[in-house]
Design goal:
The chain is of the alpha/beta class. Helices cover about 40% and strands about 15% of the residues.
């Protein structure tokens, strides 16, 4: 084809699920300047050669090539009934069978395009996050924001466990993209969702705990967005005789009330880990923190989690909504945040 194919929207999200790297890939410079694309990106010798850069390639052939490539990475073929692509302007738009073409409405920011194969690019996750509002529910987009800014990666297309990795984006990065592209479709909703997203979640369980706190009341959360993740607390010298560690990190922390929420999964049942947890709680309580522990068992049962969330609300100075309607919304949110845990609570 004459121009590179740019994967976007849900197809880009599918790609990032199966191929999210630990380091940034090649950044494209321009869709219209092939020389600068070749010069400024990493050497294309390391990129897969799919034949998409062949002049005059039929769109029907390109659809099959792209689909086969994504399947080879791990995207289920049933997710590829169409392939989302992105172009700069409406006059470039075409609707060949198998492609769903979206229009950016301006030159696509080259810093947000990643070259994944010769003739094939994908929008990065900052742009994909904004696009996600066109097909994700608000809780799904909220979760996606946490995952983009997390220190782990969870493949939603697999039943495998999450993997730890360095944080690739910050909330500030996503906000900056929204501000720079506020006239683009989805940017206003994305910016609103980002007010409830926080940096550095270390596991899907931490993300789930945070979402139960920050999600809107209308979605079953406590509606309390002013939290921090992994808040560091240094142990003062006068308390160092109580614990071996020199500092602790609180999973979810509400500074205004001094409330900390810890998630303890099944790995905390180990005797040595339990002893460390006890030391942590002793020191943090002695320092004046109001600590509450959530467990996998509570997440697995509606009433147990409801009572635990009432305790968190009380500690944070929030009103406890015990109505049947709210409990239904809260349970829907509970089921949503644990849907990928496969019993590994």
């Amino acid at each position: 084809m004459d121009l590179p194919i740019v994967l976007s929207h849900k197809t880009a999200w599918l790609y990032h699920n199966v191929a999210r790297p630990s380091e940034p890939l090649s950044r494209a410079s321009s869709l219209y300047d092939e020389d600068s694309l070749a010069n400024e990106a990493e050497p294309t010798a390391s990129l897969p050669k799919l034949g998409l850069d062949a002049k005059g390639l039929r769109a029907s052939t390109a659809v099959g090539v792209v689909a086969d490539y994504l399947v080879s990475l791990g995207v289920p073929r049933e997710e590829l009934d169409h392939i989302d692509t992105l172009v700069n302007f409406d006059f470039e738009r075409s609707t060949p069978a198998g492609f769903r073409c979206h229009v950016f409405g301006a030159p696509i920011p080259p810093g947000h395009l990643i070259e994944v194969a010769e003739g094939l690019l994908v929008v990065d996750e900052a742009m994909c996050f904004v696009q996600a509002g066109s097909w994700m529910s608000e809780p799904e987009q909220l979760e996606y924001g946490y995952e983009i800014c997390a220190r782990y990666h969870l493949n939603h297309l697999s039943t495998g466990d999450y993997i730890e990795m360095g944080q690739r984006y910050t909330v500030a990065d996503l906000i900056a993209y929204c501000n720079e592209n506020r006239s683009r479709q989805g940017a206003i909703r994305a910016a609103a969702v980002l007010k409830r997203v926080h940096d550095g979640a270390r596991s899907p369980m931490e993300t789930a705990t945070a979402i139960m706190v920050v999600a809107k009341r209308s979605q079953g959360g406590l509606g309390y967005a002013k939290i921090e993740l992994n808040h560091r607390v240094n142990v003062p010298n006068e308390f160092k005789y109580l614990a071996k560690a020199g500092y602790f990190e609180i999973d979810v922390y509400a500074p205004a009330s001094g409330t900390g929420v810890e998630y303890n999964g099944s790995d905390h049942l180990d005797k040595q880990r339990s002893a460390s947890d006890a030391e942590r709680m002793t020191v943090l309580s002695a320092l004046g923190f109001r600590m509450i522990v959530l467990t996998g068992t509570q997440f697995a049962h509606q009433l147990q989690l409801h009572r635990a969330m009432n305790a968190i609300a009380l500690a944070m100075g929030l009103k406890c909504d015990r109505s049947e309607a709210f409990q239904k919304r809260q349970n829907d949110l509970r089921e949503f945040v644990i849907r990928h845990w496969d019993g590994g609570l």
